[in-house]
């Protein structure tokens, strides 16, 4: 799973009155000024037991991009933390199941369940940034001894709450 893959289509009226497809405005790049691979405080990673960071960048149709890293907890959840040009409004517009708006630090955020298989084992949180969001993608199978019995979206919201204060203001 490399993040929320959103279909970005809509309708726009032409001057003749017929509807033509339109693509919502997507920033050409992910937000800058916060690099998940290097800017998340080590104390936050240690408090969660997150280890083994590795780069995890990807892209999808419509110009959607993700830049960041993936971490694991031994016998626990896996977390992808990436800046993306997906905005909170784009996520809300998809009406994903269990969408929950909340505040992470002083930023607006939303958690959703976007997986169609093993729904309870995954959760996506997007924390608002200028031109996109910081996305947390957690995978937490029930078979994981340390965290498998815990709600994946609650884990994701807690992690986002710990990381969000380290995003510089104005980004």
Biggest β-sheet strands, sense, barrel: 8 strands, antiparallel
| Number of helical segments with 4 or more residues | 4
Order of helical and strand elements: EEHHEEEEHEEEEH
Helix content: 10-25%
Assign an overall shape: globular
Low-confidence runs: 1-23
Mean pLDDT: 87
Query: What distance lies between the first and last C-alpha atoms, to the nearest angstrom?
Result: 26 Å
- Number of extended strands: 10
Q: How much of the polypeptide forms β-strand, as a percent range?
A: 25-35%
> What structural class should be given to the helix and strand makeup?
alpha+beta
Would you mind describing this structure in some detail?
The protein is α+β, with helices and mostly antiparallel strands. 17% of the residues lie in helices and 33% in strands. The protein has 4 helices and 10 strands. Strand 5 and strand 6 form a beta hairpin. It is globular, with a radius of gyration of 16 Å.
Secondary-structure blueprint:
Layout: E1 10-13, E2 19-22, H1 36-39, H2 42-48, E3 51-55, E4 58-59, E5 65-72, E6 78-84, H3 88-93, E7 100-104, E8 107-112, E9 122-129, E10 132-139, H4 152-163
Antiparallel strand pairs: 1-2, 3-5, 4-5, 5-6, 6-10, 7-8, 8-9, 9-10
């Amino acid at each position: 799973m490399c993040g929320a893959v959103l279909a970005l289509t809509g309708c726009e009226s032409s001057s003749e009155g017929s509807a033509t497809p339109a693509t919502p405005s997507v920033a050409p790049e992910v937000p800058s000024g916060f690099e998940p691979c290097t800017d998340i405080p080590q104390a936050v990673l240690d408090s969660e037991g997150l280890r083994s960071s590795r780069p995890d960048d990807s892209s999808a149709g419509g110009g959607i991009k993700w830049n960041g890293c993936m971490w694991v907890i031994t016998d626990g959840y896996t977390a992808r933390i990436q800046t993306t040009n997906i905005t909170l409004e784009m996520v809300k517009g998809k009406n994903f199941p269990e969408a929950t708006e909340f505040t992470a630090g002083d930023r607006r955020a939303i958690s959703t369940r976007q997986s169609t298989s093993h729904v309870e084992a995954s959760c996506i949180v997007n924390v608002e940034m200028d031109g996109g969001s910081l996305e947390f993608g957690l995978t937490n199978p029930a078979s994981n001894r340390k965290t498998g019995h815990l709600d994946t979206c609650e884990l994701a919201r807690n992690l986002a709450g710990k990381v969000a204060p380290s995003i510089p203001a104005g980004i």
